[in-house]
Amino acid sequence: MRSTPRELLLKMFEAAVEAAQPEHCVPPHLPLHLLQATPNPGRVLVIGAGKASAAMARALERHWPGPLSGLVVTRYGYAVPCERIEIVEAAHPVPDAAGLAAAERMMALVRGLGPEDTVICLVSGGGSSLLPLPLDGITLEDKQLVNRALLASGATIGEMNCVRRQLSGIKGGRLAAACHPARVVTLLISDVPGDDPCDIASGPTVGDPSTCADALAIVKRYGIALPAHVRAVLESGAGESVKPDDPRLAGCETRMIATPQMALEAAAAVAREAGIAPHILGDAIEGEARDVGKVMAGIARQVARHGQPFAPPCVLLSGGETTVTVRGSGRGGRNVEFLLALGLALDGRPGIHALAGDTDGVDGQEEVAGALLAPDTLARAWARGIRPADALQDNDGHGFFGALGDAVVTGPTLTNVNDFRAVLVLDED
């Protein structure tokens, strides 16, 4: 291995992000056959939401041979220039008025389309908060309150999106239903464990089998306090989303164009080229970030001590979306929390290095992708008077790794295929 452990880990992360870049994954999936199959094609309208949606729109524009127009909403700082598709920015992960205005405009754009028209919907992670159009009787402030409570509750992304769908005027298939009778082709970049289209941006263009009763059960499970009028929407069933068998969705097509697995395979190729055996442990790992960190430390120790289940040198790759139940005063961040728990469990074990980061460049609510861990990380922290266990207890992984100069800062990556974790186990340091 000619690269240092740090360099190799960063190369693997960069390859994972690059594999999901819209410029690579959008063109092969464009529905160009619709132009050829229809003698008199109607309008082509492009809509979308998510952290990668602006870059997706740019890639579509560059490779689409005919006229089109549209509106896409992305996170602040993630816009890229487009000529025919309007790009607007809004807040993530807690929605704001700009997102609400964009969602209202999007619903207005798709109304009145005919069967000869085509809607191309560009959806990626982050779209839930970027399209915060509430049902009647619910306000943006209500949505913000519920979103903050969900983010701090420890609920999985699937559970959070179930609640969001039942309180939305645009998610859970409602956007596709509004497009009827036009054809709808959705291009998805997945950021969720299992790649379920319902959970990517809360499924604005796909039927939703979950119910208001399911959402209420999640609210109860995590002790989330809802305003009385919001709870009433769920209890009355008024928030029921559009179901998969709804006839308005008959003309909808969904294409998964980038996934966490693809990103992990790209990272594995980099490791293999460096002479390190890659092992993908899973692309849909969930659970409390600190618990996943402890488990991964146990596996890495077994590899280092006994050569089981893999012989070193090797790298253990995984993806998915862990959760952080915020109890301290720190800034959260599931990747840095995972990494801090991993480091504490390894306790400076020689020869084990790691990187954990979010492929969108934002871990939690911080403009930091994640961090790097080395065998001397804990020792360097103690030398500075920083107590790693206290930082974990306070949910302050960002403060911990930032103080050591080990944060991974990418800026907006313009894509999002969830979390990336790499634990590098060497024969010796």
Shape from CA axes? globular
Secondary-structure-derived class = alpha/beta
- Number of discrete helical segments: 17
Number of strands: 12
Overall residue-averaged pLDDT value: 94
What is the distance, rounded to the nearest whole angstrom, between the alpha carbons of the first and last residues?
Answer: 12 Å
Describe the strand arrangement of the main beta sheet, using strand numbers: 3-2-1-4-5-6
Helix content: 25-40%
Oligomer: single chain
Describe the main β-sheet briefly.
Answer: 6 strands, parallel
Q: Gyration radius, to the nearest Å?
A: 22 Å
Strand content of the residues, in percent?
15-25%
Low-confidence spans: pLDDT under 50, at least 5 residues?
none
Order of helices and strands: HHHEHEEHEHHHHEHHEHEHEHEEHHHEE
Keywords:
single chain; about 425 residues; alpha/beta; 6-stranded parallel sheet; 6-stranded mixed sheet; 17 helices; about 20% strand
Overview of the molecule:
The structure is a single chain. The protein is an alpha/beta fold and about 425 residues long. It has helices spanning about 5-20, 20-25, 35, 55-65, 95-110, 125-130, 140-155, 155-165, 175-180, 210-220, 230-235, 260-275, 290-305, 335-345, 375-385, 390-395, 395-405; strands spanning about 45-50, 70-75, 85-90, 120-125, 185-190, 250-260, 275-285, 315-320, 350-360, 370-375, 405-410, 420-425. It has 17 helices and twelve strands. The strands form two sheets. A six-stranded parallel sheet has the order 3-2-1-4-5-6, with helices on both faces. Strands 7-8-12-9-10-11 form a six-stranded mixed sheet, sandwiched between helices. Helix 13 packs parallel to helix 14. It is globular. The model has no long low-confidence stretch (mean pLDDT about 95).
